[in-house]
Amino acid sequence: MKTIETPILVLTGAGISRESGVPTFRGADGLWKNYRAEELATPEAFARRPELVWEWYDWRRQAIAKCNPNAAHEVIVAIEDATGPGEFLLATQNVDGLHELAGSRNVRRLHGSIWHLRCVRCDHEELNRTVPLAPLPPPCPQCGSFLRPGVVWFGEGLDRVVLDAAFTAARTARTVLVIGTSSLVYPAAALPEIALESGAHVVEVNPEATPLSPYVAERLEGPAAELLPAWWREHAPTD
Ligand code: OAD
Ligand code: ZN
To answer: What pLDDT, in 10s, does the model give residues 147-172?
Structure first.
């Protein structure tokens, strides 16, 4: 039994939700009507073709609405349960809300939430779980302009407060779990790099090698829903 050192930072990407049935962004799942995520998840794409971009998000919302958290999401809750106050942070790039549904509490959503909508013109924001949405784009109830998905697009900045919390956790973490992310998209991909510089023990869970792989202490090479529960059984504190 090897107990892990705290504080713990967990960084997740689309791969953790794969076994829940949520399509990832890159790889075989990543295409939708011959568009790549990078072509749709941008402010320029939305300005040019808001119906097309909304159709894609509506399709993702419909897919995600049918999905439940899997064993990997649940293990992350167990890890949080086993840690004291201030010793755990989950930074996720996922917009699907499955961590919250599983019961994770100290979550920072780096790329926002697909269930939150906000107006492109005024300050209206709402939580909206309706699937499918109609009409598309949805109109703002306050000013009649378009609502947009409450996600971060390529070329947009991340929320300062969210980002600061994640970077502080990366600097202080002793153990970092990097689960189901291609480690290609910054600034999220910088979090494990910063933790490595501070001497943290970094564990990567991913069936494929990533640019981070050569630098990590442990690689769990396979699906997170299988390998993470096994890893936690070995490392969970026994008392
Ligand atoms: P990607 O789709 O880029 O990468 C998913 C990763 O999960 C890949 O490295 C896969 O090898 C891995 N994977 C697949 N199945 C897995 C499994 N069962 N268990 C564990 N890992 C598995 O997704 P992200 O890295 O999350 O951003 O992408 C980062 C960001 O780029 C997203 O948040 C989104 C995207 O475009 C924005 O929209 C701003
Ligand atoms: Zn409005």
So the answer is: 999 999 999 999 999 999 999 999 99
Length of the chain: 239
Give per-residue pLDDT as tens, 74-128: 999 999 999 999 999 999 999 999 999 999 999 999 999 999 999 999 999 999 9
- Can you read off the two tokens belonging to residue 59? 């399709």
Asked if residue 167 and residue 56 are part of one domain, the reply reads no
> Where would I find the H helices in 66-155?
71-81, 98-102
Q: Is 124 a catalytic residue?
A: no
State the closest ligand 1 atom to the C-alpha of 110, by its place in the atom list counted from 1.
33
Q: Ligand 1 centroid vs 238 CA: distance in angstroms?
A: 32
Q: Which atom of ligand 1 is nearest to the CA of 37?
A: 36
3-state helix, strand, coil in the chain (%, to 5): 35, 20, 45
- Is 57 a domain residue? yes
What is the domain count for the chain?
A: 2
Ligand nearest to the CA of 124: 2
Which residue, 125, 151, 177, sits at the end of a domain? Answer: 151
Hey, what are 170's tokens?
Answer: 């990366």
Q: Exactly one of 73, 99, 111, 116 is catalytic; which is it?
A: 111
The answer to whether 202 and 215 have CB atoms below 8 angstroms apart is yes
